[in-house]
Every structure is written in structure tokens, then in C-alpha cells.
Amino acid sequence: MTAPRLRTRRLDLRDGRVDLSHGAGGRATAQLIDEIFRPAFDNPMLDRGNDQAEFSVPAGRMVMSTDAYVISPLFFPGGDIGSLAVHGTINDLAMAGAQPLHLAASYIIEEGFPLGDLQRIAASMGRAAREAGIAIVTGDTKVVERGKGDGLYIATSGIGLIEGERSVCPASIRAGDAVLISGDIGRHGMAILATREGLAFESPIQSDCAPLVAPVQALLKAGLEIHCLRDLTRGGLATALIELAESSRTAIGVDEVAIPVTDLVRGACEILGLEPSYVANEGRFVCILPESQAEAALAILAAHATGSPPARIGSVRPGPAGMAILRSVIGAERILDRLSGEQLPRIC
Amino acid sequence: MTAPRLRTRRLDLRDGRVDLSHGAGGRATAQLIDEIFRPAFDNPMLDRGNDQAEFSVPAGRMVMSTDAYVISPLFFPGGDIGSLAVHGTINDLAMAGAQPLHLAASYIIEEGFPLGDLQRIAASMGRAAREAGIAIVTGDTKVVERGKGDGLYIATSGIGLIEGERSVCPASIRAGDAVLISGDIGRHGMAILATREGLAFESPIQSDCAPLVAPVQALLKAGLEIHCLRDLTRGGLATALIELAESSRTAIGVDEVAIPVTDLVRGACEILGLEPSYVANEGRFVCILPESQAEAALAILAAHATGSPPARIGSVRPGPAGMAILRSVIGAERILDRLSGEQLPRIC
Q1: Do residue B1 and residue A67 have CB atoms under 8 angstroms apart?
Q2: Predicted structure pTM score
């Protein structure tokens, strides 16, 4: 008795496209996993071919986070949906002071999506994961009909471990704390917008998309008393400060002149009538800690900077509770408010 | 200095629709979370409003799983995308012998999706999670433009803990083991197909969508030496048996007459030219364990059955390695093969 198994031709990564059979859980799905995802992610847990990954954990505090990525376009200066889906989720873990451990990834692919693009994105995910020292241990692939998606959506979830007893969260913020920023803001949003709208600048704006695990671990390992960390994604710096002020029941005051913005981003924002402090980032965060440790933290952040140097942009005040306050270039103070509409859809 | 905050009207759950601002990370996103997801999921970790959930874990073995759910239609007899997204992922954890711990959920919503439907689905997720004794601890909401999605896609990820030393996985399968099935097959796939195609049967076929944590935990707590468990989702029983035979390098032989199929499902399959053993299920699993413990396991499965009684459908043979073999009603044996095309798109 011999198997009636067909000899399967390898995927055509140059001209081939995803079809509905790749999401049916049968032979085509197995081939997609074997020829695209396994080689890109290359880890023994995934190779086991189970519907779940198994691993050992020490007793302690764990964090879990998830994000769906629907960015358009899928490829942009400084990254793609794959690197974004890895960095975005591990950064959420890092912001709790955790060392990321493992990632899981689900793909919703539109019928007709080029197999070559899928391979490029999977390779980018694998590279981003290896650079961050983590593994993509389990996944799922679904295919939807043409016109029911937009190329590719990815949802990633991650878990991480917190060492020590420290609580890095808004509740730890205290009046008098210094507010630091890890680099210049607005690059990711403006890179996407410029690509999408076909805006030509002298040099293209590169997204700041980057993993934030190394600077965060360096801050923690230096023994600094980090009160709170927050990455500046959708809604940008302004929305992050509002959320932190509200959660901590403090006031957070920042100086507009101290906030690093490159001339390129500032110019693009002016053309488009946007405020840099509301524009999305994918590799920048604020760090809130005792004033006395600000200089030490800035030195560590400077050593890990991927753009303009970090800066001290403000401080925490006792009140008015729940307010983020911006002192403008001319010295006037105004309360920052959440955007009420949609500034830029599908930025991440 | 007073806040320039607008008094926000509550969401119109009767006639309102999701728009792009609900995915922008600003005020509308916060309102969607506060008025739809938090009340439905009701747990303190989500209430903390961070981008990640924090919790304590004991030292030990953990499993992680993820699935994207793109089912169409969103509501079907016996469930909806919400209950499916919870059951599907916790079942993947249960199949490793784990007790599910926490879930994370990401939503990709198409602009124009009714807020009332979103609330109904969130309520269904919350209910399914509570019934399974787990919490949905973190999430993310994205909105895509009209025509770039299909109402709602959900990706869930879960983690669970394995007690004891047992390895419930294909590598533990041994020749001579009994192969049990927890109930009748084919209901989920036929329920979806009947709904989608507007087929009218005398009584509607109900999906078997259900959590499998309780029967699995009962099998383990009874001290049975469970070698392997596998839920029968996309590709159905046949694909699961093929995957298990391949992973374990054994042969798995099953008797067609022993496989429970209701008359309703068998009739619908005949009309549509489908084989029940390839049709998807969302609340059925196979259990492989030593022959001597088959009767005890069947008694436990019977106590947790949600449809037809469980059955012993076959046994594991030493070879030919990697083959799943079906003995037909007339006694002829044939090797089962993976489906090469798409039987039924967007079944889960």
C-alpha cells in the first residue's frame, strides 16, 4: 500500500499568488507554512508543527499584549508591516519593564496577494524577532476573498517576564518626576503619509520603527528607579501624555521647545497642517523617573538612540490632576486634548 | 484652568456604526473600549487601561496559541464569531493538556460595521470566557476603510499552564493505542454552509462550537495516560488523523461505521457531495490513549458530551508510518489524503 500523495511543486515565489486553498488548512496551507514561515522564523517550537507552542517559565510576573497591524502601504521607508508587527508588540511588553519572551502571529491574507511579498514580510518578521532575541513560536494563516481585505493584516501577541519587584506603570508616577523622551518624534507617521500621498521631499523621511527592548533593559539594569514608560504610537506624544496624566492623576507639563523634531518632519507637518506631537511613532518612548536620575537616564538613552538625541522635555506636577500641559515656543501654556477625529487612518 | 474636554454622547448601540475614528487611538477609540469591551469582559486587568496586562505565573510549563477568525457569516446557529474566537483558541491550549489562563484579542473592524453587532459579539466573547473560567486581559482595535474588510475579523491568542509532567502531543502516540472521538462530526461546517447558502432543512443544523477545557481536564484529573489530543477544526477529522499519523510516524486506522454523524449532517453532506470526515468542527476532538484505558475515557467523555455520545473509532498501528487509513462501510481500506483545494472558505 503506497500513499497517493501528489508530488507538490514548490511555491512560485516570483509570480505566484495566495489563493483560498492556502487558508483551508489542507495541503496548500501546510506548504505555505513549510516554504515561507518556517524558514523565516527558524525555531524548534514552530518546527514541531503543533497548534500551540510549549515552553517553560519561571515563577514571577508576566505581561501579555496584542496588536493588530493594518498599516497601508505594507512597505515604507524604514520598515514594513512585518518588522512593525514584531517591534510594535515587543515594545508594548518592554514598556511594562518586561523582557519579551515569545510572540504568536496570525495572518489575514487577501486572495491574490503576491507570494514573494509574503516571503519578504515573513523574512522581515524573522529578522526583527532575532534582533530582539525572541522567537515567533506559533501562528495561524487565514485567506479571505479578493475585496474582503487589503493585501495583508497581521495580529501579533507577545508575552514577557518582569524581573524584580518594580512596577513600571502610570500609578508609579510622582509629582516632581522628570519626563524624558528617547528621540525625535513624528517620523513614522510622516514616512507613511509621504509614501501614501506620493509626497517628494529632498530625502525620504524614514520611519523610526525600532525595537525598544535594549534601551529599556539598560535603564532597568542600571538600577534606575523607572516610574513609567510609554511608547508613542497612534496619537503620538500628546495622546500618550494625556493618557499618563489621566491614569496617574497628576499633571504632566512639557516644553514645546525641548521636544526633538527633525527639520524634515517639521517641514512636512507644516505643509500638511499637522502637529508633530500628535503624529505616530514606532520607536520612541517617554521615560518618567525621579528628577535626580534624569541625567543618568539620558546618558543611557543617548547610547541607544536611533535618531536625534534623547531629551528632558518636562516634569510631573501635582495638578491639575489628569491634565497634560504644553508650554509653547512663546511661553503660553495650553492643555492638550485627545484628537476627536481621525488624523491618519491605518498608520499601524 | 479647566479642561476643554467635550461632553461625549454615549455610543448609539441601536443605529450607530463604526467609523475610522474608532480605530485612531483617540477619544472615539477610548469610548468604544469603555462602552463596549470593558463592560462585556469585566476584569480588573483590562480596567487598568494599559497597553499590556500583568499577572503572576507559577514556574512550570506554559503553552501559547493564536488563531485569526474570519468566519462568514458572523452569526450562525450555535454561535457567532465571538464565541468561536474564544472557544477556538482555548481549545488549542486544552489540546496540549493545558488549563487556559488568559486571552488577548485584536479586532479588525470594517468601517460601517453596526455598533450593536459589535456589542453583541463582545458580550458573546465575555460569556464564553467566563464559562471557561478565563479572562480576556488585553486587546487592540483597528478600523479599516469600507471594502477593505468584511465586517469583523478577530485574532485571539491564549496562554495556558500544563500541570504535571505529561507530554500530550503526537510524539507520545504508541502503536496499540485506542483512538476515541468526543462526539458526532461535521456540524460546524454544515451549519455555516447551510446558513451561507440559505439551505433549508427541517431543523437547522447547530454548530458544535464549544469549549473543550472541562472534558480534557476531567480526563487528566482521572489520572488517565492521555497520549495525544487534537481538536477537529479546518479539514475535519480526516486532516487531523493525517497530521497525527505524520507527526507520530505511526499509522492510524479508523472505522467509518464507528464515526458518529447525525442523520441531518449526513443528509446535508450527501446533497452537497461532501465527506463528513473532512468537514470542520469547533467542539470535537480525538483522544489517543492506551487501549486498556479506553472504556474509562469514554465514560468521562460521555459525561461531558454536547451532542452524540463519544465513540471508539479505531486504533494506532505500527505502520505504514505517517498514514491515516479509513476502513469503509463495506470493509475496504483506503489511505486518507489531505484536501488539495478549498472545500469551504472562511469556515472559522
Answers
A1: no
A2: 0.95
